Amino acid sequence: MAGTLLAPPGGTPLERLVQVAMERGYTARGEMFSVADMGRLAQEALGCQAEVLCGGLGGPNRDHVLQHIVAGHPLLIPYDEDFNHEPCQRRGHKAHWAVSAGVLLGVQHVPSLGYSEDPELPGLFHPVPGTPHQPPSLPEEGSPGAVYLLAKQGKSWHHQLWDYDQVRDSNLQLTDFSPSRAADGREYVVPAGGVRAGLCGQALLLRPQDSSH
């Protein structure tokens, strides 16, 4: 999904991604418990820049993540998946990946230039394609319901809006390998240090190869 955003319209076939990941020893059956390995895979198979973010999605990383998405680049986030695909907290037992490529900001004032109001939803403004526009000031961390990520997860047909803080909190508690997976008799590639070392508090920022920060 991220590859399609980076190099539309074709992207890179899923089979190619899995093949490279298995050849490099990143995965045994399609699982990916390492953000660093996912970054190496993206760089090789998608030909893009990949930045591993450590320390969680909050604090000083928050503006960096939001500016990355506002610039139109995809973000890959490991998180615990609830039954409805939204973020939850299961200590990593339901760890999965989602891609985010959009953000909904609740702001006090819409910048005057470069935005148009949605014809069907008053109060919702979109950047006008091809028009210079000033990014809106980002809501401060802790503002309730002010930032939502537009996210998509591979098992869902639909995009969803996820509260940023819920995504941040889910990503920060990925610590344990699922007991049911550990007992199913199958082989998985888990990095040294386990799920905590491979996923916890980490995300992947992808950019086209010719893009500057």
TrEMBL record:
GO terms for biological process: proteolysis. The keyword Hydrolase applies. Coiled coil: none annotated. Keywords: Aminopeptidase, Hydrolase, Protease. InterPro entries: ACTMAP. GO terms for molecular function: aminopeptidase activity. It catalyses: N-terminal N(alpha)-acetyl-L-cysteinyl-L-glutamyl-[protein] + H2O = N-terminal L-glutamyl-[protein] + N-acetyl-L-cysteine; N-terminal N(alpha)-acetyl-L-methionyl-L-aspartyl-[protein] + H2O = N-terminal L-aspartyl-[protein] + N-acetyl-L-methionine; N-terminal N(alpha)-acetyl-L-cysteinyl-L-aspartyl-[protein] + H2O = N-terminal L-aspartyl-[protein] + N-acetyl-L-cysteine; N-terminal N(alpha)-acetyl-L-methionyl-L-glutamyl-[protein] + H2O = N-terminal L-glutamyl-[protein] + N-acetyl-L-methionine. Belongs to the ACTMAP family. This is Actin maturation protease. It comes from Bos mutus (wild yak).
